[in-house]
């Protein structure tokens, strides 16, 4: 996805994801696992772009997340920027993207960012955190599938 | 280069955010992003709550009618005592004034709607701020008990750091939420320092390994604070861990408030 159209879509998605993350994500938790809408948008969008734009959408996503959560802005922006960059890089490799790939990449990205978050913010009870992370990874992966399908419909071919 | 540049910019933004917070302010970027996302967030929150209430009402109508009757009866009982309580409060304030203790914190109660929750950061977003007299450090309680303290204050919005937030690490802004607490089931009530352990448990540390605390005891705020009044319910003791070596007694506390039920809270200013 490229050009002004791509960025408009990305910003609208981040706005909706940020609003939902703040207000409804905790109410839609399943078995203690909550979705991370912003991360889903960052990863799914990065699947349609190159590593530079992936890093940029990651940075914007981290900025929104850091602002609404009240946590360390630097932690969120750095982890999301690296994440967007890596997913954008992955898109540059020779593989065919589809909904299953979106599920796997988003689930793995959730795991990696949550573990990075744990390293930045150590806590006492690690096991519940890891279990919640696995749940969130699956939850985010499932959410990424319809979003991927939607973006596929409105996007240009990936910039390889 | 882009990656390094953006990461460096992120670190700069984080530094600006922390700098603003150390002056009890919210930085412009954070405030702008929150202002942009809040209207849609409130709308989505309303839609989810209304949908949930619709289904709850549909499937639990009889139970809700009975509960409504019970609450009306309780309200009548409360009304008979409220005048007496108000009289005692006024008397207490007068005595405090004569003794030079200053005003009791939490005298004014500001109701607020919860419309946001950050899971990783253990923070609530509520719809009252400095325009309603809210200040950083004010206690926030629900019907069940103490929920946390106000951390960030904007004109019409605040973020509340939950009691359960601290864990091993100080919170995101470099401070652990520590609150003085006492066991009201014992005379004299032993006092300790409370902090979050994880999302569902608190730890209360007494500096006496033989403090007369028992499982099931009720823990309330000590009042050893300028902003948190005495007597707010915190929770119940569920486990005791005395340590003669360190000269402490650690009590694990099950917090009284339930996050799932939090829709309205009261800020005590």
- How much β-strand is present in the residues of chain B? 25-35%
- Number of helical stretches of at least 4 residues of chain B: 3
The number of distinct helices of chain A, counting runs of at least 4 residues, comes to 6
Spatial strand order of the main sheet of chain B: 1-2-5-4-3-12
Shape of chain B: globular
Report the end-to-end length of chain A measured between terminal Cα atoms: 11 Å
Give the overall silhouette of chain A: globular
Mean pLDDT of chain B: 84
Question: How would a crystallographer describe the biggest sheet of chain B?
Answer: 6 strands, antiparallel, barrel
Q: Provide the β-strand percentage band of chain A.
A: under 5%
Radius of gyration of chain B: 21 Å
Could you spell the SSE succession of chain A in H and E letters?
HHHHHH
**How much helical structure, as a percent, in the residues of chain A?**
over 70%
């Amino acid at each position: 996805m490229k050009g002004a159209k791509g960025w408009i879509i990305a910003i609208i998605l981040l706005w909706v994801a940020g609003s939902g993350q703040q207000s409804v994500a905790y109410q839609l938790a399943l078995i203690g696992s909550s979705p991370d809408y912003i991360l889903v948008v960052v990863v799914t969008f990065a699947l349609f772009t190159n590593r530079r734009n992936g890093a940029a959408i990651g940075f914007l996503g981290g900025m929104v997340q850091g602002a609404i959560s009240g946590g360390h802005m630097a932690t969120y922006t750095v982890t999301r920027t690296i994440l967007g960059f890596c997913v954008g890089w992955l898109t540059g490799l020779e593989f065919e993207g589809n909904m299953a790939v979106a599920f796997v990449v988003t689930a793995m990205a959730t795991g990696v960012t949550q573990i990075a978050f744990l390293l930045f913010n150590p806590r006492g009870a690690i096991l519940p955190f890891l279990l919640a992370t696995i749940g969130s990874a699956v939850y985010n992966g499932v959410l990424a599938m319809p979003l991927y399908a939607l973006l596929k419909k409105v996007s240009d071919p990936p910039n390889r | 280069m882009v990656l390094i540049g953006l990461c460096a910019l992120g670190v700069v933004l984080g530094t600006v955010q922390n700098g603003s917070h150390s002056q009890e302010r919210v930085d412009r970027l954070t405030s702008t992003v929150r202002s942009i996302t809040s209207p849609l967030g409130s709308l989505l929150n309303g839609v989810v709550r209304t949908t949930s209430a619709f289904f709850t009402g549909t499937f639990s109508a009889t139970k809700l009618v009975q509960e409504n009757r019970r609450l009306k009866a309780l309200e009548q009982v409360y009304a008979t005592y409220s005048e007496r309580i108000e009289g005692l409060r006024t008397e207490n304030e007068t005595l405090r004034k004569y003794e030079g203790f200053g005003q009791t914190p939490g005298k004014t109660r500001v109701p607020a709607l919860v419309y946001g929750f950050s899971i990783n950061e253990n923070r609530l977003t509520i719809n009252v701020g400095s325009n309603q007299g809210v200040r950083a450090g004010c206690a926030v309680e629900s019907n069940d008990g103490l929920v946390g303290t106000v951390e960030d204050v904007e004109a019409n919005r605040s973020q509340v750091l939950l009691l359960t937030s601290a864990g091993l690490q100080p919170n995101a802004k470099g401070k652990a939420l520590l609150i003085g607490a006492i066991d009201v089931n014992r005379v004299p009530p032993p006092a300790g320092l409370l902090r979050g352990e994880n999302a569902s448990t608190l730890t209360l540390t007494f500096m006496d390994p033989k403090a007369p605390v028992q499982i099931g005891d009720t823990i309330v705020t000590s009042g050893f604070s300028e902003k948190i009044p005495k007597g707010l319910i915190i929770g119940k003791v569920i486990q005791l861990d005395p340590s003669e070596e360190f000269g402490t007694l650690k009590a694990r506390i099950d917090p009284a408030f339930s996050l799932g039920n939090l829709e309205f809270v009261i800020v005590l200013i």
